[in-house]
Amino acid sequence: MKLIVIAAAAALLATGASAQSYPDKPITVVVPFAAGGPTDKVARDLGVALGAVLKQTVIIDNVGGAGGTLGATKVAKAAPDGYTLLLHHIGMSTSPGLYRKLAFNTLNDFEYLGMINDVPMTLIGRPSLPASNYAELRKWIDANKGKINLANAGLGAASHLCGMLFQQQVGVDMTTVPYKGTAPAMNDLLGGQVDIMCDQTTNTTSQIEAGKVKAYAVTTLKPLSTPALSKLPTLDSQGLKGFNVSIWHALYAPKGTPAAVVEKVNSALKTALKDADFIKKQEALGAVVVTDGRVNPAEHKKFVAAEIEKWGAAIRAANVYAD
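Predicted structure:
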C-alpha cells in the first residue's frame, strides 16, 4: 500500500513539475489541411503570436486528408503533454455527422483550449445571373426550380455546408456541383458554368471588390463592417430567420493533458488574440477574432457541442455522408 501511495505522489509531483516548466521545447500545432489554405494561414499567424507569449517555437505540421479527420486523429492519439496541439475549423463539429466511423470522439478525446476566430460567408452568383439583389435572386430561384447549379469546394467543405443549409431553408433542391477545392469552383462560377455558391469571405471578398461576381448576402446575423461587404444584407434579415453560418477556428490538446498546461496554453491564447499584428492579419482575411466567452475552454466545448447538434440535423436531413 505504501509503495502505491509513494508512486502516486511521485507521479503527481512529476506532473506538477512538468506543467510548471512547460513549455521547455518547441510546440507542434497540427493543421489537418494542406499548406497555403485559410486554416493554415490562421495557424501560422497564431503560431507567431502564441510563440511570442510562451517564449517557445511553434511548429506547424500539415496533416491533410479525409476532410481534416486524419490530422485530428493524430492529435487525439498524441502524448497528452501539451506539445502536440490541434488547430481545426468547423470540421470538428461536422465530422461526427458526415462520417459514419471516426477514430476519435470530438467531445471526449480532446481538451478544449479556446476559440480563435469567426470567418463569415457570402452568397454569390455568376456575373451573368439576372438578379441584382437578394430579393430578385429569390424570385429567380423560385422560377428556375430544377435548373439551378450550386457549386461547392467538395464534400464537407464550408461552401458545401452553407449551400446545404441554404437549400433547406429556401425549400428548393438544387443540383450540387462539388469541386476539388475553392479555386476550380470559383473559376467555373466566374465563367458561368455554375450559378451560385456560398463561401468564406477569405475566398470571395476580392472577387466581390473587383465586381467579378454578383454578391447577394452575408451569412451572419449582423451585417459586416468590411468596406466591400458592408452594404450586403444578411440572409436572416431577408427572410431566412436564424440563418447564421461562420467558419470558426479553435485550438485543442489531447485528452488528459494536465490542467495546469491547459490553463497555461489558454492564458497564452487569450494574450495572443489581443496581439495587434495578429488582429490586423485576421481582418485582412475577413475574419473576426473571438473576444467573447468562447475563448474559455468550457464555453468553447459548449459551443462545439451545440454546433454538432446543428450540423448533425442538417446533414441527416440532406442524407449526405462521407463514407
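Summary: Residues 201 and 286 are 6 Å apart (CA to CA).
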